[in-house]
Amino acid sequence: MAEQKLNLGTFLRGSREQRSLTLRAVEKATGVSNAYLSQVESGKIRQPSPLVLHKLAQLYEMPYTLLLEKAGYPAAMSESSSGQPVVVDSRLGPISSDEESELKRYLEFLRSRRGRKEGE
């Protein structure tokens, strides 16, 4: 029997229930309102923002790219062996390896700032 492909909402609901989490618990952990999460799980919202998907991927301990794919976002491409630019996000377009390094450093900076604020 072929494996049935779950839509994003059904997949997220199953992931949440598997962890015995309520919508309110997910809201508390991610900052995403339980009403919004309910609409995503019910399929009323089919393409939540990548930021929401990232928060859920972290909480549910699953690959972020999996949720992006299930939501219909283009998958991030890795650098090709020919040295062609990488597409990190469809909104950014191709970036060079130098730009990728700078983006990584800036992201590390932002995450370190966020970590300090949470600990204060």
Give a brief rundown of this model:
With 120 residues, the protein is mostly helical.
Strand content: under 5%
Radius of gyration: 17 Å
Distance between the termini: 53 Å
Order of helix and strand elements from N to C terminus? HHHHHEEH
Helical amount = 55-70%
Total number of helices:
6
CATH H-level name of the largest domain... which superfamily?
lambda repressor-like DNA-binding domains
Oligomer: single chain
Detail the poorly predicted runs.
78-82
Structural class comes to mainly alpha
CATH class of the largest domain reads: Mainly Alpha
- Overall pLDDT score: 80
Instruction: Report the count of strand segments.
Output: 2
Level-2 CATH architecture of the largest domain: Orthogonal Bundle
| Order of adjacent strands in the largest pleated sheet | 1-2
Shape: globular
In words, what does this structure look like?
The chain has a two-stranded antiparallel ribbon with strand order 1-2. It contains six helices and two strands. The longest helix has 23 residues, at 97-119. 57% of the residues lie in helices and 3% in strands. The model is unreliable at 78-82 (pLDDT under 50). The protein is mainly α and 120 residues long. Strand 1 and strand 2 (94-95) form a beta hairpin. The protein folds into two domains: 8-70, lambda repressor-like DNA-binding domains (434 Repressor (Amino-terminal Domain)); 86-119. It has helices at residues 8-18, 23-30, 34-42, 50-60, 64-70, 97-119; strands at residues 86-87, 94-95. Helix 1 (8-18) crosses helix 3 and helix 2 (23-30) crosses helix 3.
